[in-house]
Specification:
By secondary structure, the protein is of the alpha/beta class. It is built from twelve helices and ten strands. The strands form two sheets. The protein has an eight-stranded mixed beta sheet, sandwiched between helices. The chain has a two-stranded antiparallel sheet with strand order 7-8. The protein is globular, with a radius of gyration of 21 Å.
Length: about 350
């Protein structure tokens, strides 16, 4: 067990401070304190966690061709939470959200290979959605976790629900932000899309033989904002740039750190029926938070079918819409942190009641 009773009560108390709409059973645990030193212990516990969150550790997880960079937040004995960013983003995507989450979570925010500060794949390699699932398993084995909660934004959400379907006994909970499922490819378009992906990959190989473009700070900032379709604020874009850019070799400007090949991450995508078959194995607790101004990517009726599938098969399922853009977790983390904290806390409380 990751928590004793005293630590659980400290967590629930923290939730009540963050969100006064919290479940009454959770808030009532404040009254269960039974020791004289409870408040002092609780205060010390929270302060320690908050200090650790202010200064996450940079860790490198070995790969056969280099390393994966992660930001390691929170107490070493905390409940493991793996944070997976979106397409062409990086671990900085969670920088504003993590400090608002429960203080006794140990959050590992990952730079997927080819993103942020992680190594690029060897020349000629292809970035595939399913290959990222292998990288998720690498992280879990590196930390020797037996159970895991995964939070994912966009692409990261797609990876989370697929991984949880492949490893239902390993994943306790998935929290998805602004994606319901990976985008499917209609059966009749699979061959054409694969051919387009091959041609694009070869074109990108030729571009990789050239020196990467060098930008001024302002140019890089605007290029990032434009590339994300103005869904990020300037402040959020600067956060992503901390891991997403570096000085050029001549020191005259900035270059983007992501691998240009990561612009195309699949030759062959799953069709809708294949996705239904895979995702029907998802059994964990599932929270999906949808940004109202974010993209839906697919027909609403198709997505409703998958929401119904989640509701039938998940141990506990919640779908919530919030005001905000695709990057609501980075631009406005206070809009979703209470939802996440309450969802996780209810699970911890229910597990505690079963003891």
């Amino acid at each position: 067990m990751f928590y004793d009773t005293l630590k659980l009560e400290a967590i629930f108390t923290r939730v009540s401070l963050l969100d006064n709409r919290c479940d009454k059973r959770i808030c009532s645990t404040i009254k269960l304190k039974g020791s004289v030193g409870y408040k002092e212990h609780q205060s010390s516990l929270m302060m320690t966690s908050e200090r650790e969150r202010l200064g996450p550790k940079e860790i490198q997880i070995p790969l056969p061709y280099g390393h994966m960079a992660v930001k390691d937040w929170g107490p070493p004995d905390g409940l493991p939470l793996l944070a997976l960013h979106g397409w062409l983003d990086n671990a900085g995507s969670f920088d504003t959200l993590i400090p608002l989450l429960l203080p006794n979570l140990r959050v590992i925010a990952l730079d997927l290979p080819g993103h942020g500060l992680s190594s690029h794949k060897p020349p000629g390699s292809i970035y595939e959605f399913v290959h990222f699932l292998i990288d998720v398993k690498r992280v879990i084995e590196f930390y020797e976790w037996k159970k895991i909660t995964i939070i994912g934004h966009s692409l990261g959400c797609g990876l989370a629900v697929f991984f949880a379907s492949l490893y239902p006994n390993l994943v306790d909970c998935v929290i998805g932000i602004d994606l319901i499922k990976p985008v499917a490819t209609p059966v009749e378009k699979i061959t054409r899309r694969a051919a387009e992906a091959i041609d694009q990959h070869l074109l990108l190989e030729k571009k990789c033989s050239q020196e990467p473009p060098v930008y001024t700070q302002d140019q890089a900032l605007q290029r990032l904002i434009d590339g994300l379709q103005n869904q990020v604020t300037e402040k959020s874009a600067k956060i992503l740039m901390k891991r997403g850019t570096r000085l050029s070799s001549d020191g005259k400007g900035l270059i983007f750190t992501r691998d240009i090949h990561a612009r195309k991450i699949s030759l062959f995508n799953f069709d809708i029926e294949q996705q239904k078959l895979i995702l029907s194995h998802l059994k964990c607790e599932l929270l999906i938070i949808k940004a109202k101004e974010g993209p839906w990517y697919e027909d609403r009726e198709i997505l409703k079918d998958f929401l119904d599938l989640y509701a039938r098969n998940s141990k506990r399922f919640q779908f919530t819409e919030v005001e905000g853009s695709h990057f609501v977790h980075l631009n406005n983390p206070e809009r979703i942190s209470p939802i996440i904290n309450t969802f996780i806390s209810k699970r911890l409380l229910e597990n505690k009641e079963k003891l």
